[in-house]
Structure formats: C-alpha cells, structure tokens
Amino acid sequence: MTDIIHTPPPVPPAAAETSDTALMPGIRTVGTSAPFRWLAAGLEDMRATRLRASFYGLMFMLMGFAIAAIYETRWQLTMGLTAGFFLIGPFVFCGIYWLSRQRERGEQPDLTGSLSCWKGNPASIGFFAAILTFLMVVWARVSVVIFALFSTRDFPTMQGVIAQIFSMSNMPFVIAWFGVGFVFASIAFAISVVSVPLMLDRKTDTMIALFTSVRVLWQNPVPLYLWAALIVALIGISLLLSFVPLLLTAPLVGHATWHAYRDLVAGRG
To answer: What whole-number distance in Å separates Cα of residue 48 and Cα of residue 106?
Structure first.
C-alpha cells in the first residue's frame, strides 16, 4: 500500500507580510525621523480640518483648570476628578482620530459626528479607558506613599508638591518619585501607543489592541521613546503655561498619533 503524504498549502506572501498571526495585525519598523513626520502630518490635518479638533483641546484645557482649582480648595477630590479625566481621555481623543480618518478617506471633516465616533466600538474603548484609570489610580497612590516617606515639606498644598518635586535638597525623593513615575508612564505608553486608533479604525477588541501596541513599542523602541519625549515636552510646556496651549497641542498630538498608527500598523481598516 502506498503511503499518501499530504503537504500543507504554502502561506500566501501577502498574508505573511500583513500579519504575524491570524488575529494580530502586522507591525512595521520606522526610522528615528518618523515622529517628526507624524507631527508635520498632524499640523497638516489641523490646517485641513480648520482647527475643528481645537474643540477637544478646549475640553482638556478646561479639565486642567478644574483639577488645579479643586486641588487648591478640596484636594481630597482631586484623585476622583483626575481618574475621570483619564477615563474620558480615550473617548476625547477618538474624536481627533476620527477627523484625521475622515480627511484620509477624502470625506468632509465632521466635528458633530466625531463626538460619537467611539460608539462604533464602545465596549473595547471603554474597557481600555478603565484599564488606564486603574493604572492612574495605582500610580497616584504610590506617589502619595513616596511623598509621605521622603517629604521634608508640608503637604498637600500644590506649592508644596511642586517644591518637593523640583527640590535638589531632597534627592532621594526626586530619584524615587521620577523612577516610579517612569515605570508607570512606560507601562501606560506601551499599552496605548496605537491602541485607541486601532480599536476605532478596525473595531478590534481591547486585548488585541493592547498586545499590538506593546509589539509596536518592542519593535520600534528608539523612535517611539523619542515620540514619547516629544509628547511630554508639548504637553508639559502647555501645563507650565497655564493649560492654554492645550487648545493647539492636544489636537496636534491627537492628529499625529493617528499618523503614527498608520505608519506602524500594517494593513488598513
């Protein structure tokens, strides 16, 4: 009797280029100049959409004012308000991504429609927002513990916190605070590089989006940490200048993040 050997069919080259697995999107490698290209594309989106995304920048600016005002008067409520900020953040940025997506597809940018674009995948985006909020709350609690252990100034006035953070006379606190902050910020950045644009564009579930985002960072560490530094610089300067620049910097980061997603994740939604 002759043995019959079954040979599995070869994987089409296109499929191998597009995805590492049946579910996970493929990842592209980019150069160190990519973040500047994303910012330039974001600026072009802002111009082409006639600054419609500044509406979302206004929301971030007002939230910043609210957090600062409540901290000065009733600091106990600050954590809850900040958690709410992180909770609605992905939904707010969805609108900016949507405007870039519409422009990319040759559609008329629609601010009204962008307000509810997250409804296309509410469960996944909402779960991601909850994960970010939980991470933020843990980060805030750890920061309070570190401050209590190393503090040499009064707490919890805003001036006391800022003075403690930037005081070179208390280096153990500075090292511990920035070290722990870097760990939490790295985790948050790793899971959110392309997560929300991916969930919005392709309606993927939360875990696929998170794993894809981590893979993106793993494959492109240098350009993406440069991208993170640029984001910190833009948003940090906005905070130092009393939140007002968020009218422009938040939309810029949002539009640019859409182009980062397009550059880094293979295939199209």
So the answer is: 11
